[in-house]
């Protein structure tokens, strides 16, 4: 495995031609995705600035161009008209000022009639490598030319150096703007801090720390916080770090939410109960972000990084890593968030596979299963002798579904556990599964649960097997993301 020095990871990209050979190399990878946003080179992690503006969906991602390593981060820009087909526009925010000299970190977007504003964390380090985090602002005036404005504020002295991921919120009831930031107290406890202003671009001041009763000691850092209004509920989304949760194996970084009520006057989010809900039950989901400005408060549109901090993936050895999940619609049903794939994805379907004549599983496809009751067992990408593969099993007696990737040839992040499960009190009746060349997303019971995971089948893992009473349809899917070299 390549050893990365600090100098190599934080090298400034001066000319796109420096990485063109790397792009040409990774385009040959057997694991390049066909309809998921992925890194043009190097590493992709958090989605940023997800917004609909002037008839176009904008989605940015954290990008380190040199390899599958966290180093100097840029904001890379992609656009879409339908949330299905995506076009690369290249780098939008570069770490080129004293305030972001070691990276343009995660953030959000605010559309206005005159412009599109991008809020991000400027990661500054001095000569002794001491970090200071600034909340920075970019004016994307013509949707193409970023203009950096002066930082809104610097780090708050009452918290550690970990203050990042600004989410901009406009409260229409009182007309004020709020920025919620993930932070860490001096006692090393995760929290959210809040700034406010009457203007989206100036005069910001510290409002206080968000009070979340029952969650005063829940991980040592909260990343990517957001407060959304969905189906009449306030929803606090965040990523608590360095704690273990039941059923999550050895994973210590999580993406989840609380349903409750947000009081902006007292800066208090009161959860309906003390249960932290996992947003995604799969192995690889983090840093979820909701689109900024949907007018329909019955739903939200969400995308996440299909990966985890401090995790390794088989394509690391090819000098690239990372993709985003499919965008999903979020609603509240039975006091839980549900996630559903977009209807527009149906436009990618080709002619249905004739399952009477083959058990070969397309590497890029959509599957739909309707269960008639009882136990159900699926093996995706099994070997020719019927062994191995990705296992999806529903136990009707226990009323539980489990996903196990230990049967695949390429095993990774084994120490975090290779099986994830979810109770289904009402049983299993429907599965919708999206397979790309190195990922699987399993939507259970019309969105009651989703399992998002990276998988890396080898050429001898090609079969689909099922044991149980269910109808099955499989459609190959057309490509929807152009793997163009645009920097």
List the topology elements.
Layout: H1 6-9, H2 20-26, E1 42-53, E2 56-64, E3 74-80, E4 87-93, E5 104-111, E6 116-125, E7 131-140, E8 146-153, E9 159-170, E10 177-185, E11 190-197, E12 205-209, E13 222-230, E14 233-240, E15 256-263, E16 268-271, E17 277-278, E18 286-290, E19 300-305, E20 320-321, E21 328-333, E22 336-341, E23 365-382, E24 389-395, E25 400-407, E26 419-423, E27 430-436, E28 439-444, E29 449-454, E30 463-476
Parallel strand pairs: 1-20
Antiparallel strand pairs: 1-2, 2-3, 3-4, 5-6, 6-7, 7-8, 9-10, 10-11, 11-12, 13-14, 14-15, 15-16, 15-17, 18-19, 19-21, 21-22, 23-24, 23-27, 23-30, 24-25, 25-26, 27-28, 28-29
**Total of domains:** 2
Mean pLDDT: 96
Largest sheet: 8 strands, antiparallel
CATH topology call of the largest domain = Tachylectin-2, Chain A
* Tally of DSSP β-strands: 30
CATH level 4 superfamily of the largest domain:
Glycosyl hydrolase domain, family 43
Q: Percent range for helical residues?
A: under 10%
- Helix count? 2
N-to-C CA distance: 27 Å
Oligomer type: single chain
C-alpha geometry: globular
The poorly predicted ranges are none
Structural class: mainly beta
CATH class of the largest domain: Mainly Beta
The second-level CATH architecture of the largest domain is 5 Propeller
């Amino acid at each position: 495995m390549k050893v990365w020095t600090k100098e190599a990871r934080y090298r400034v990209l001066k000319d796109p031609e420096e990485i063109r050979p790397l792009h040409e190399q990774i385009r040959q990878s057997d694991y390049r995705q066909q309809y998921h946003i992925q890194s043009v080179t190097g590493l992709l992690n958090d989605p940023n600035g997800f917004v609909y503006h002037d008839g176009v969906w904008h989605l940015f991602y954290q990008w380190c161009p040199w390899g599958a390593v966290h180093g100097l981060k840029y904001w890379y820009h992609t656009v879409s008209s339908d949330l299905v087909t995506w076009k690369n526009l290249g780098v939008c925010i570069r770490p080129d000022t004293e305030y972001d000299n070691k990276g343009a970190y995660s953030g959000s977007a605010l559309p206005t009639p005159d412009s599109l504003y991008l809020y991000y964390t400027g990661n500054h380090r001095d000569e002794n490598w001491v970090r200071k985090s600034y909340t920075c602002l970019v004016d994307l005036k013509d949707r193409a030319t970023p203009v950096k404005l002066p930082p809104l504020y610097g780090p708050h002295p009452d918290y550690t150096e970990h203050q990042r991921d600004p989410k901009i919120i406009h409260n229409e009831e009182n007309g004020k703007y709020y920025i919620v930031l993930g932070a860490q107290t001096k006692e090393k406890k995760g929290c959210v801090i809040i700034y406010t202003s009457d203007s989206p671009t100036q005069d910001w001041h510290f409002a206080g720390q968000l009070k979340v009763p029952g969650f005063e000691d829940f991980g040592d850092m909260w990343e990517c916080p957001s407060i959304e209004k969905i189906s009449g509920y306030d929803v606090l989304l965040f990523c608590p770090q360095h704690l273990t949760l039941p059923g999550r194996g050895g994973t210590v970084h999580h993406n989840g939410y609380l349903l409750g009520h947000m009081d902006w006057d007292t800066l208090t989010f009161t959860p309906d109960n003390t249960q932290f809900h996992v947003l995604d039950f799969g192995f690889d989901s983090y840093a979820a972000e909701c689109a900024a400005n949907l007018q329909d408060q019955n739903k939200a549109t969400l995308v996440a990084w299909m990966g985890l901090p401090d995790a390794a993936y088989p394509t690391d050895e090819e000098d690239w890593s990372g993709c985003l999940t499919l965008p999903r619609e979020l609603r509240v049903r039975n006091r839980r968030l549900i996630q559903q794939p977009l209807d527009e994805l149906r436009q990618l379907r080709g002619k249905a596979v004739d399952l009477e004549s083959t058990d070969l599983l397309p590497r890029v496809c959509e599957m739909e299963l309707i269960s008639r009751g009882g136990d159900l067992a699926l093996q995706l990408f099994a070997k020719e002798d019927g062994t191995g593969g990705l296992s999806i099993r529903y136990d009707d007696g226990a009323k539980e579904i489990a996903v196990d990737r230990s049967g695949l040839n390429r095993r990774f992040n084994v120490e975090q556990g290779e099986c994830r499960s979810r109770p289904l009190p009402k049983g299993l009746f429907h599965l919708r599964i999206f397979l790309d060349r190195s990922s699987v997303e399993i939507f259970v019971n019309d969105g009651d649960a989703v399992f998002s995971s990276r998988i890396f089948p080898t050429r001898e893992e090609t079969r689909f097997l099922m044991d149980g009473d269910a109808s099955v349809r499989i459609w190959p899917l057309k490509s929807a993301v152009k793997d163009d070299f645009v920097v």
